[in-house]
Amino acid sequence: MDIIVDLLLAILHHFLVFTLAGLLAAEFALVRPGLSGASLDLLGRIDRAYGGVAMAIIVVGICRVLFGVRGWEFYVANHAFWGKMVAFVIVGALSSRPTMRIIAWRRSGTGVVPEGEIGAVRSWIKGEIFFLALVLVFAAAMARGVGS
Ligand code: HEM
Questions:
Q1: Bridge partners, 46 (sequence order)
Q2: Element spanning 108, H or E
Q3: What are the φ/ψ torsions at residue 68 (nearest 5 degrees)?
Q4: Considering only CA atoms, which residue is closest to atom 16 of ligand 1?
Q5: Which atom belonging to ligand 1 lies closest to the Cα atom of 140?
Q6: Pocket of ligand 1 (CB under 6 A)
Q7: pTM reported for the whole predicted model
Q8: Which residue, 45, 62, 112, 141, could crosslink 80 as a Cys pair with Cβ 3.0–4.6 Å?
Q9: Do residues 54 and 14 touch, judged by C-beta distance below 8 A?
Q10: What confidence score (pLDDT) does residue 111 get?
């Protein structure tokens, strides 16, 4: 039974993580000069979904720590786990700036994004992609007991 719970949580965790990466890639593709109208609306929806999926990852991740076969003691004593948590928090922190800009662009009512603001938001998203990659590095390490 324990192994089934562990397996189901692992499957869900992977689905969510791949979805998050896909949504982030979609944001990066949409945020470019000329962004406006329907693309801006789509970007707003994608960004909200991104936030929701990130929340779900936290819930499922905590469930994996608490109900996974290894037991929570393994993770709290593992440096790679904490490295992963720090990298994940940084991704969340970096995502707040694009989210605030996207909300402001949509609220402006013009449906048009000032070209001068695009570059900065793309840079924030690049930062998110970098730290998300780091989350994966730490995830693989902790799953193999590196850092225990
Ligand atoms: C975007 C954020 C996250 C990504 C990309 C991610 C990615 C991954 C990946 C790829 C694995 C499988 C590693 C492997 O088997 O080689 C994994 C496992 C795991 N993750 Fe995450 N994760 C994220 C967030 C979280 C959070 C927030 C938590 C806990 C609060 C968490 C807890 C775990 C646990 C407990 C495992 C199982 C490791 C093991 O097999 O012992 N993850 N994660």
A1: none
A2: none
A3: -70, 160
A4: 140
A5: 16
A6: 13, 17, 20, 57-58, 61-62, 64-65, 68, 70, 75, 88, 132, 135-136, 139-140, 142-143
A7: 0.95
A8: 141
A9: no
A10: 83
Residue corresponding to tokens 């593709």: 29
Amino acid at site 87: A
For the stretch 80-111, pLDDT in tens is: 999 999 999 999 999 999 999 999 999 998 88
Quick one: which of 51, 29, 45, 36 has its CA closest to 122? 29
What pLDDT sits at residue 30? 98
Structure tokens at 24: 């982030």
CA distances from 2 to 61, 68, 87, 125, 144 (A): 16, 7, 29, 38, 19
Q: How far is CA 64 from CA 39, 60, 81, 145, in A?
A: 36, 6, 12, 15
Residue having the nearest C-alpha atom to atom 2 of ligand 1: 88
Which one of 17, 19, 89, 136 would you pick to mutate in the ligand 1 pocket, going by the greatest count of ligand atoms within 8 A of its CB?
17
Identify the residue whose C-alpha is closest to ligand 1 atom 26.
61
On the question of pLDDT at 78 being above 80, the answer is yes
Between CA 5 and CA 29, with CA 60 as vertex, the angle to 5 degrees is 130
